[in-house]
Design a protein that fits this description.
By secondary structure, the chain is of the alpha+beta class. 66% of the residues lie in helices and 10% in strands. Strands 1-2-3-5-4 form a 5-stranded mixed sheet. The longest helix has 72 residues.
C-alpha cells in the first residue's frame, strides 16, 4: 500500500500533458513552460522603451501589446484541456492576427515577430487540416506586412514561422495521442478487471454448483431416513462430509491459482515501478515459459517483485538490468532470473527478512537464490526448475 501511495504522489507531481491545471501550483509550472516562448516580445518592448514614438503611440502600443499577450496566453492555457467553442476560438485567433497586422503597420518592423505567436496558436488550437493552410497564410501575411514596413531578414522569419507553426501542430497531435492512449489503457484495465470477475464467478459456479446441489440433496435424503434408518442416514452424512471437504479443496486450489503471480505481469510492473522511481530499466521481452511449472514461475515472479522493491526502496540506483534465461545444469534445465543494479545497496550487512523469505520460497520450489555485491552495484540471481520433476535430468 505504501508503494502505491508513493507512486500516486509521484504521479501528482508530474506535469500532465493536454490537461488543465488542477491547482495553482500546477498552473504556475505550466506557465513556466510557456514563458520562454515570450522571448519574441523583447523586440516590441525595446521599441516602446526606446521612446521613438509619440506618447499617444507609445500608450497605444503598450495597450495593444497587453491585449495581444493576454489573448495569446488565454488561447494557449484554455487549449490545454478546456478549449474555447469553435466560433470563439476562430474569433480570438482572428483578433490575434488583426492585432499583429495593426501593430506592425503602425509601429514598425520591430513588431513583425508577433506573427510567430499567431502561427503557434494556429498550430496548437486548430486541427491539422485547418493548421495546414492557416500557418502558410499567416506566413504570407507576415511577408507582405514586412515588405510594407521595410523589415530586414524576412526569410529567416518566414522559415521560423513555418517551422514553429508546424512543430506546434505536431505537438498538438502528440498530446492528443497521449490522452487517447491514457484513456485506452484505462478502458483496457477496466475490461480486464471485469473479465477477471466474470471468470472467477464462472469458475466458482462450476466448482461449487455441483457440490452444493449434492450436499442439499443428501441432506434432504438423510432427514427423511433419520427416524427409520439411522445407519443409512449416517452414511449420507458421511457422504456430505466428504463432498464438503472436496469442495473446500477445490476452492482453495482455485483461489491459490488466482493469487499466484505471473512472471510476465511482474515484468510489466517492474517496468512501471523502476521508471516511476527514476531508475533506467533494461528488461527482456516476454520470456518463453513453455513447459515451466506454475510453481516455478510463481517463485520467480516473487523473486522479481522482491528484487525490484529493494532496488526502488534502498539501492539509490540509476539503472537496473533484468535478464531471464534458460540454462542446462547438472540438475536439469533451469530458468534463471538475474536483477543487477548500480546502486549502493540497502542498509545493514546481512540479508533482510524479504530475501530470507524469498530463499525459503525458492527452495520449496526446488530452486536457489544468490544475492550480493557485484562490482559497483548489487546482483540477485534466482533459479528454478524449468521442467516438471518427472522430466528433470536424463532417463538414466
Amino acid at each position: 500500500m505504501t508503494d502505491d501511495r508513493i507512486g500516486e504522489a509521484r504521479q501528482d507531481r508530474l506535469l500532465r500533458m493536454g490537461e488543465p491545471p488542477r491547482d495553482l501550483g500546477e498552473a504556475w509550472r505550466k506557465l513556466v513552460w510557456i514563458l520562454p516562448w515570450l522571448i519574441f516580445l523583447s523586440s516590441p518592448v525595446r521599441d516602446l522603451a526606446a521612446g521613438a514614438h509619440t506618447p499617444g503611440a507609445t500608450a497605444g502600443g503598450w495597450a495593444g501589446l497587453a491585449a495581444f499577450t493576454g489573448t495569446y496566453l488565454a488561447l494557449i492555457f484554455r487549449n490545454m484541456g478546456r478549449p474555447f467553442p469553435q466560433r470563439v476560438l476562430v474569433c480570438l485567433v482572428a483578433v490575434l492576427g488583426v492585432l499583429a497586422v495593426a501593430l506592425s503597420l503602425t509601429l514598425g518592423s520591430a513588431w513583425v515577430g508577433l506573427f510567430v505567436y499567431v502561427a503557434v496558436v494556429c498550430g496548437t488550437a486548430f486541427p491539422l487540416r485547418v493548421a495546414s493552410w492557416t500557418i502558410p497564410l499567416t506566413t504570407a501575411v507576415m511577408l507582405a506586412v514586412g515588405q510594407v514596413v521595410g523589415a530586414g531578414d524576412m526569410w529567416t522569419l518566414v522559415l521560423l514561422v513555418l517551422l514553429v507553426g508546424f512543430a506546434m501542430s505536431g505537438v498538438r497531435q502528440l498530446v492528443r495521442t497521449t490522452v487517447e492512449l491514457r484513456q485506452a489503457r484505462a478502458t483496457v484495465a477496466q475490461l480486464a478487471a471485469n473479465e477477471e470477475r466474470l471468470r472467477l464467478a464462472r469458475d466458482l459456479h462450476d466448482l461449487l454448483g455441483h457440490s452444493l446441489s449434492l450436499i442439499t440433496l443428501k441432506s434432504e435424503l438423510a432427514g427423511r431416513m433419520l427416524p427409520a434408518h439411522p445407519d443409512k442416514a449416517a452414511q449420507q452424512v458421511a457422504d456430505i462430509e466428504q463432498v464438503s471437504r472436496q469442495a473446500l479443496v477445490d476452492v482453495r486450489e482455485a483461489v491459490t491459482g488466482y493469487r499466484r503471480p505471473r512472471l510476465t505481469a511482474e515484468l510489466a510492473g517492474a517496468q512501471v515501478a523502476l521508471t516511476a522511481a527514476g531508475v533506467s530499466p533494461a528488461l527482456p521481452a516476454e520470456p518463453d515459459l513453455t513447459g515451466v511449472p506454475e510453481e516455478s514461475e510463481a517463485a520467480l515472479a516473487w523473486a522479481l517483485r522482491e528484487a525490484v522493491t529493494n532496488v526502488v526502496r534502498h539501492s539509490g540506483a540509476r539503472r537496473c538490468a533484468v535478464e531471464v534465461v534458460r540454462r542446462q545444469t547438472l540438475d536439469g534445465p533451469m530458468l534463471e532470473l538475474s536483477v543487477e543494479d548500480d546502486g549502493t545497496g540497502g542498509p545493514g550487512n546481512g540479508p533482510g527478512n524479504g530475501l530470507t523469505g524469498l530463499q525459503e520460497r525458492l527452495e520449496k520450489a526446488g530452486g536457489m537464490l544468490e544475492a550480493g555485491r557485484a562490482g559497483r552495484g548489487f546482483r540477485l540471481v534466482a533459479r528454478v526448475p524449468a521442467a516438471a520433476p518427472g522430466h528433470v535430468g536424463s532417463p538414466a
